[in-house]
Specification:
Elements: E1 5-21, E2 24-37, E3 42-55, E4 61-70, H1 96-113, H2 117-121, E5 124-131, E6 138-139, H3 141-154, E7 159-172, E8 176-189, E9 192-206, E10 212-221
Parallel strand pairs: 5-10
Antiparallel strand pairs: 1-2, 2-3, 3-4, 5-6, 7-8, 8-9, 9-10
């Protein structure tokens, strides 16, 4: 990436920080970034981010995970891709929480495949922050409901042959569950077809009875050349 562009400015603005316990913090916010291309052209973009901070051996906060996304589709997404060898994710042990997450993700996948917005909205907390790919965040059900409803309705001309939602791991903090999510969608529309894949972070609020409601979500798409 250093050979493609030189970052000249990066300004993150924290929106909120959620203390999960055990010293782990989830920070959400927005950013402005500027860079200079190899030919001298200067560009600027805006976007949103989620940082997961965890205390290191010396007690100082270290980034455990971060996801960033822009507010719009990038004109040349391939220029932001770096080839990284794939690694097998750790296998999470079977547990009641793993089963609940799996059930929620299967319900979400089924609702997406059926173009059914109601069960998708039912997964979110009323004060959720949803950070969709190549778009601006939606905060609270008053913003999330019309956005997701319009998004689902706009895609009714697309047939989803398969939808899968899962995770590569999760962490239980009692009142919160941090999930490292993935998705894969096989779609058809007119004479076109393809598979869209991606991932991100999902932060669930966990009630005393074990029920889950999504509190923060940010997603990205894998680039397909």
């Amino acid at each position: 990436m250093l050979g493609r562009r030189r970052v000249t400015d990066y300004v993150p603005v924290t929106k909120d920080v959620i203390d999960l316990g055990r010293g782990v913090l989830v920070e959400t916010g927005s950013f402005t970034i500027a860079w200079t291309l190899a030919g001298g052209t200067v560009e600027e973009e805006r976007g949103k981010y989620v940082n997961v901070w965890s205390p290191g051996p010396d007690g100082a906060l270290k980034l455990k995970a971060d996801v960033r996304g822009y507010f719009r589709p990038l004109p040349d997404p391939a220029a932001f891709v770096v080839a990284i060898p794939a690694e097998a994710p750790p296998i999470a042990p079977a547990s009641a929480l793993a089963a609940r997450l799996d059930a929620a993700n299967r319900a979400n996948a089924r609702a997406v495949q059926d173009h059914d917005v109601a069960p998708q909205l039912a997964l979110y907390a009323d004060d959720a922050v949803f950070m969709p790919f190549a778009n601006t965040p939606r905060t609270g059900m008053a913003e999330l409901r019309p956005f997701l409803t319009a998004y689902v309705n706009a895609g009714r001309g697309v047939t989803f042959d398969s939808v899968r939602v899962w995770n590569t791991g999760f962490e239980d903090f009692g009142g919160y569950v941090l999930e490292y999510g993935k998705f894969s969608v096989a779609w058809r529309a007119g004479g076109s077809s393809g598979v869209t894949q991606g991932g991100g972070l999902r932060l669930w609020r966990q009630s005393a009875d074990g029920s889950l409601r999504m509190l923060r979500q940010i997603g990205t798409h894998d680039h397909v050349g």
